[in-house]
Amino acid sequence: MNVELNLLKIGNSVGVILPKDVLTKLRVTLGDRLFLSEQPDGFAMRAHDPAFVEAMTAAEQIMRDDRDILAVLAK
After folding, report:
1. Separation of alpha carbons 62 and 1, rounded Å
2. How confident is the model over 57-70, as pLDDT tens digits?
3. Which distant-in-sequence residues (6+ apart) come within 8 Å of 45 by Cβ?
């Protein structure tokens, strides 16, 4: 999907106008946050924070690996 985006001056900054179908595909609405990350071939815009996803994946792995220890600590 290639979409031409319009830029709009907002104070001393510049904003991007996202079409409704793009917002729907990202599953975001007005007031939500988007995360822009630099990739080797350009930029990627996501509705979730990649660093948070990475941290939660690591936490889930620790919980699986140390299930017995966590069960003892929970008592």
Report:
1. 37
2. 888 888 888 888 87
3. 26, 34, 35, 36
